[in-house]
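Example record for the data management plan.
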Amino acid sequence: MRRSLRVRGFPALATSYAINELGDNLGVVALAILVLDRTDSALAVTALFVAGKFLTAFAAPALTAGLDRRRISRVLPALYILEAGAFVGLAALAGDAFWLPAVLAFAFADGLLALTARGLSRGAIAAVLTPHDALREGNALINVVFAVMSAAGPVLAGFIVFQWSAATALWADAASFAIVALLLALSARSLPEPEVDDTRESWRSRVRDGLDYVRGHPIAGRLIAGEAIAILFFTLIIPIEVVYAKETLDSTSLGFGVLIASWGGGILLGSALFARSRSRSLSSLVLLSTAAIGVGYAVLAGAPTLLVACVGSVIGGTGNGVQWVAVMTALQEAVEDQYQARVAGLLESAAAAVPGIGYIVGGALTSAVSPRLAYAVSAVGVGIVVLLWSRRPIVPDRAPERAPVRSS
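Corresponding structural encoding:
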């Protein structure tokens, strides 16, 4: 992974992506605590997640398509400055001026900016690393950092809110995004730029062009559609894990924490395995990691004790630590340069939108029968995705011709 850090432009992009993830998790937790404290309403917290996570997934691909042919050295810093501004607004609302509709509006704006920045960053990362044959190493590094930031964000938010206030956490988030914008502005000369700064084409045309490209591509469409379905089954069990641990396994709150920690430990293990798997084909990594998640869910569905359930969590978490980055890398290797940001943004948006459906299905299955049924359905669904993907190669035998990329 160290080799990727020597590629000009990648350290700044990786840092910005990592802080985006940290800030996203920190902000979500701080906002959830703020909204619950001020409204004492679970429905209001649900509305926050719908506005900041679900609705943004449908708007982000259009914004990404409208920006991906503009100069990345200008667009990314601008997005992070706007994101910092959104958190300044949220921090101001955390005081006596709290008003739920305004909080939801700022949360939507922040979620939209964050998803767009991720898509554009993924496109820029592919542009700087691919000519150096370092895409897998760079993605492996980002995957490890992503896992760490996903865990650190909620912990940091909880600590800041406990020690000071939700407003303090939101001000800290605003400062972090301002720092990232400054970092990218100072690194502008090392960032990749499109050959033509074409801003005349309408964003509707660019969205249609991107969707037509994905539909007609022999790899991209299958990967994005398959991953969306897989994520539906991956996330189906998230709302019912606590019920599973405490009622089905008759465990305690500590047991629930150990079960979740087991999955997190598996993610870290999987991230390390991907980093050391350069010699393995991406097709096998995608299939094996997806299958591992399904096996983990199958073990959880039939686990008689917490110990067995933790073993299943480690298996599933290990697959989880490989699966997303393997799919993203396969997609980046298959797609032409001019479509990188739009296609990556579409995958990121699918990953943000689909869990909402999974939560509903998982809750319904648990209410109707038991958490074990939800885990079993997840295992079967993931197995079906693996079978469908295995029918044809996920990664093309030969990478497509790539348009030249210049660095300004």
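Summary line stored alongside the record: The chain has two domains: 1-192, 206-395.
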